[in-house]
Design brief:
about 190 residues; alpha/beta; Uracil-DNA Glycosylase, subunit E; six-stranded mixed β-sheet; 10 helices; 6 strands; about 15% strand; globular
Length: about 190
């Protein structure tokens, strides 16, 4: 099955390029940062937008935040290759500014197609921008670490690893929230 899923993902990536999504961002970026990982993953991580390292390498979460994400994955006995990692916005915003609402809206249909191809048991949103796309009425400070089921899909809002790198208290909160992932997955599997 994976081959056809990978082919479908490749098609979505090709469509983003063909449809000239956020051309202004594309022109100021080195690479389209589409996604990385296992198309059959139970876990799909969604950040907000690529940073400098991601733009250079064409892969999501390869900078300092990515290293922290990888550390947390290994703490719950997962490898990066076992999960799927992407961002809402697939091009780096200039000077690492926050993605604009219209940029998120432009990429959302493609992200939704990615999610439908992968069919993860759980989508883990990393940061406020990512969470707001799926749980628009919620505040991350109040709901982080609490799984939410929307239209059959379970979402787990977490703080962004980058924010936790600069805030010691948030770092421990993120680690604690992250460590609940295996238990939540087990509950989803039982409930299926």
């Amino acid at each position: 099955m994976s081959l056809s899923k990978q082919a479908e993902l490749d098609q979505i990536k090709a469509d983003i390029l063909k449809d000239n999504i956020c051309l202004n961002l594309a022109e100021s970026s080195t690479n389209l940062v589409f996604g990385d990982g296992n198309p059959d993953a139970d876990l799909m991580f969604i950040g907000e937008a690529p940073g400098k390292n991601e733009d250079e390498q064409g892969l999501p979460f390869v900078g300092a935040a990515g290293k922290f994400l990888q550390e947390m994955l290994s703490q719950i006995n997962l490898k990066r290759e076992q999960v799927y990692i992407t961002n809402i916005v697939k091009y780096r915003p200039p000077n690492n500014r926050d993605p604009l609402p219209e940029e998120k809206i432009a990429f959302l249909p493609y992200l939704e197609r990615q999610r439908k191809v992968i069919q993860p048991l759980m989508v883990v949103t990393l940061g406020r921008h990512s969470m707001e796309c799926f749980l628009p009425e919620m505040q991350i400070s109040k709901v982080h670490g609490q799984p939410k089921r929307i239209k059959g899909q379970v979402y787990l809002p977490l703080f962004h690893p980058a924010a936790a790198l600069y805030n010691g208290g948030m770092r421990q909160t993120l680690i604690d929230d992250f460590n609940s992932i295996p238990e939540i997955l087990q509950l989803i599997r039982k409930g299926k």
